[in-house]
Design goal:
Elements (H helix, E strand, L loop, with lengths): L1 E2 L2 E2 L2 H11 L3 E5 L7 H13 L3 E6 L2 H15 L3 E4 L4 E2 L5 E5 H10 L7 E6 L11 H10 L5 E6 L5 H12 L3 E5 L7 E7 L3 E3 L4 H10 L8 H7 L25 H9 L5 E4 L3 H14 L5 H18 L7 H8 L3 E4 L5 H13 L4 E4 L13 E4 L3 E3 L4 E3 L2 H8 L11 E6 L6 H9 L13 H11 L3 H6 L2 H6 L3 H16 L3 E2 L2 E2 L1 H7 L5 H9 L8 H12 L18 H15 L1
Parallel strand pairs: 3-9, 3-10, 4-7, 4-8, 5-7, 8-9, 11-19, 13-15, 13-16, 14-15, 16-19
Antiparallel strand pairs: 1-2, 5-6, 11-12, 17-18, 20-21
Amino acid sequence: MKYRGLELYPFQAEAVRSVQAGDSVIVSAPTGAGKTIIAEYAIEQSLERGRRVLYTSPIKALSNQKYRDFKERYGDKVGIMTGDVTINGDAAILVMTTEIFRNTIFEDSSRLHGIDWLIFDEVHYLGDPDRGSVWEESIIFAPENVRFIALSATIGNLEQIRAWMEQVREVPVKLVHTDERPVPLHRWLYLPDSGLFEPRELKKRLAEAKEKLPPPSKGRRDRDRGRGRDGRGRRDDRGPRGAKGQPPRQGSDVLRRLVKENRYPILYFAFSRKKCESLARRYQRKLKLLSKEERRRVTQLFDELVERYEAGEHPACASLREAVSSGILYHHAGVLPIFKDIIERLFSTGLVKLLFATETFALGVNMPARCVVFDSLSKYNGVEMVPLTPLDYQQMAGRAGRQGIDPEGDVVGILDPRDDAKQIQETIFKKPGAVTSQFSLGYSTTLNLVKLLGEKVPDAVRRSFMAFQSGSAKKPLRDLENKLNVLADRGYLEGHELTGKGSFCTKINGFEIQLTELFWDGCFEDLDATQTAMLCAAIIHESRPRDSSVQLEINLVPEAIVKRARKRIREFRR
């Protein structure tokens, strides 16, 4: 089967035939295998019929990229809705984050009229602790006549997800799966004293590196360091020290070798924004990657994009332009959306040779590289250092190898001598496990369900993936009952209907109970805009571990208001 002059891979052809037959389908394939082409086929089929398509994704970066891609091909037929922006919200092809789609179902489902296909990108996010519940609610409450195309990485319980979707949607759902990558990956590991080596040498190289580590001295602090942790029990990721106490070489030598062998563009994953920025600045000084002609072309393109976005007056523009001329940049969620978009466009041209990025860059954003480097095969999860899961590794590693350009993709994992060989092998080679339901009814979701379903809310809980997996809705129904009782006691519900307070709460997304309680208590009535912003910031702020920022005491909010706010939130918790 051919599409747009391309010979489709067998899994693509099978999925397209399901779309032609009008069946909902789950398509599972490795990152970079070409799942998106099935969605594009469905889009064109729907446009021919005068129908609409909704494309949802887990993060804004992916939504923005899909919007750009579709906009270039379909022009004004494309719109986007994210938390930041709405453009052409009634378009035939509407791109959304999944969270915005879920909210739209609850708040204004009329905006979803005429939808033929609903495309869920990265549907394995059902198992994400923070976002999984949003995906379940989206699948359960999507308009009845909508057909699904669910795109997923390879996971261990696809058949279970297919069976649940088939039950909850009451329509046949096909499963198309492949483990093959069009561009094979060559996996490498790196230790400072060993250089690059293949995974089959891992045990030997790690054993040799461990022998060179200094023996742990007495005391808890040193014992913790010997286990890869500092004196406070946190992971000490600085690596082994040399005889004179010099820091390890870490990624310096491996990047120089990859550059020398022309294996760029290189995508280097570091699991903190600060690390991305510091590494980018270090190598902007050390490496000369662009020729004079390439520097001219990339800065010219940068200037054109800045003019298009009208961003030339921004104070960060000059320093970013200088960085662009080096061919080395960084990308993470803290970068302003306009500049993030510019960086993505520059990287896609191949003129940015080295990009330091956090893991969000791997979530469906179609920005392949010749080579992917992992700064570490473990990351901080908010509580402690944990190994990368096989799914995390495969999604990021899958960015290596460009179809039609590279014969293979290179993936390099930088190790610490204290890493565990068995765990590294599992991360690299073990197949991703089963996705587990993260269904959890928050107060705002519960109120929205009452607004949508009234007394039928328990039916929604019985249809959850959690109930399907466990074979029973005892537990989630009890949780629902507890939340309904609390909301009724606090004045959000009367019977099966929302009160004015409850209706107000449904208009807020995030910290909805705290903000509603303070609003209803009149805490905001005598505050100006700045004071209101400060009180809201105090509610949502979570200090980061090892946060060294200066704490400023600016008493702009009256102390009486602060005390009332604290009392009101404490009372709700009782």
